[in-house]
Amino acid sequence: MAGYELVVRGGMVAAGGGVRRCDVGVRGGRIAAVGEELPVEGARIVEADGLLVLPGGVDTHCHIEEPQSDGSIHEESFTTASHSAFAGGTTTLVCFTPQFKGGGILEQHRANRERAARGMIDHSFHQVITDPTPAVMDTELPQVVADGVASLKAFLTYDPLHLTDAEFLRVLLAARRHGLMVHVHCENHDAIHWRQQALLAAGMTAPKYHAWARPPVVEREATHRAIALAELVDQPVQVFHVSCAEVAEEIAHAQARGLKVWGETCPQYLVLTAEDMDRPGFEGAKFICSPAPRQAGEHEGTWEMLRRGTLSVVSSDHCGFSFGGDRGKARNGRDASFDAIPNGIPGLAARLPILFSEGVSKGRIDLARFVALTATEPARIAGLSHRKGAIAPGLDADLVLWDPAKEVTLTNALMQHAIDYTPYEGLAVKGWPVMTIARGEVAMEQGRMLAPPGSGRWLPRDASETARPLGRLPDGFEAAPPLP
Ligand code: URP
Ligand code: ZN
Ligand code: ZN
Q1: How far from 368 is each of 54, 55, 204, 428, CA to CA, in Å?
Q2: Probe residue for ligand 1, chosen from 239, 241, 341 as the CB with the greatest number of ligand atoms within 8 Å
């Protein structure tokens, strides 16, 4: 038998739902063996004594180098995002291809592939649909799907991205036809708009009023509605960035009825609070994202939903806006009203350290749950589990050597992103990635990038088991066109 090209020796390997001291042998960029005392002749040996060996993180919700409707583009490129992802132990990204109302998706998809090919990290895309015209859904979407896109993203809020219920139904039906997963941003657009106008009219314009404009009830209502419409057409969905337990309850009810509904949350809903948006000066703008961070008292409820499995994925929702600069949070001035501040915060590199520290180190979740939430489940829901998300023979050798005892205070420099701040500045974490291996090559060691530009690979995805409908329609009636 041929030897291994790389052997990661003597670490505590998280595999098969457990953790045991053993070696990982790599051949041809894939995991060839997980076992004790693997032969090392001719192999590069990486000593992992005292370290955890984890599957590389899979982040299925990050906004990288995304063109915006105002003609600008996110500051974070696929190259800088690769640095940041590897620095935080993530080896796979699923990002977004935009659609602008009145525009198509095919050219956007091709351009996105070109941009992503310059980076060092393996990647796939969700296709955003903001305007489900027949030309887009019947002509362009099949071509994008044929190129390996297996998921759609729908926004139920934001000007100018949001869909009406009729448009959302079109997206769900198209997804069902092609076997795609649908990911949804759930907030009630009209309710938010009404509250925004009322707050602004009352002179309540500071960053903290972002949270007042979109309290949990608008997220809960839209989550209920999205799930109900998905049930109507028998289409699996994942609810993105669930901010608190009262919203997750909607998902729990759907799951209890046997529906294929999954929930994702993000570190910002586990450690940031609405009070952060009330920091002095314009500092609160650094924490503006949607849904808004909630009260500190909500965090434990969200952890409980992660333990129960109601929420099965923790993503970053990384969003490339700096604080300063002409594309940053303060682009409209340091006295801009909350509705004129770009939504979204950076968190690519912070995702795994925060979840490990707040979760595993503090005893809220065990290591197996950490691995499931950050790698195995996101890979499974994305239809990538044949390559990513676990340590098992045949899968890509994406590995993170993790020092569970290392104590680090988060700083912006450690994030290695293109953004000029981190909302987690000063947060103390216990547990840190010391080496990231991507497809059998050491991509980052002690924070130093070793992977060359252009080494990231496109991950074509097929229709997956997770996206397959249940075969359960009201009255058994398969609604055919005309679409609403
Ligand atoms: O505020 C956020 N989350 N911005 C990113 C876009 C989105 O809603 O996912
Ligand atoms: Zn969103
Ligand atoms: Zn997002």
Answers
A1: 10, 11, 45, 23
A2: 241
Residues 159-205 pLDDT 10s: 999 999 999 999 999 999 999 999 999 999 999 999 999 999 999 99
Whether 229 has a pLDDT exceeding 70, the answer reads: yes
Cα-Cα-Cα-Cα dihedral of 292, 296, 301, 307, to 10°?
A: 90
Of ligand 1's atoms, which has the minimum distance to the CA of residue 319?
A: 5
Q: Tokens 């592939």, residue?
A: 113
Residue 319, ligand 1, Cβ within 6 A: yes
Ligand 3 centre distance from Cα of residue 187 (Å): 13
Say if ligand 1 is within 6 A of residue 344 CB. yes
Distance 289 CA to ligand 3 centre (A): 9
Give the global pTM: 0.98
For residue 346, give the ligand nearest its CA.
Answer: 1
Ligand 1 atom nearest the C-alpha of 61 is 9
Residue nearest to atom 5 of ligand 1 (CA): 344
The model's pLDDT over 10-29, given as tens digits with 9 standing for 90+, comes to 999 999 999 999 999 999 99
CA of 234 to the centre of ligand 3 (A): 24
Residue 320 binned pLDDT confidence (cut-offs 50, 70, 90): confident
Nearest CA among 460, 378, 383 for reference residue 149: 460
Q: Is the CB of 60 under 6 A from ligand 1?
A: no
Rounded to the nearest angstrom, the distance between the alpha carbon of 61 and the centre of ligand 3 is 6
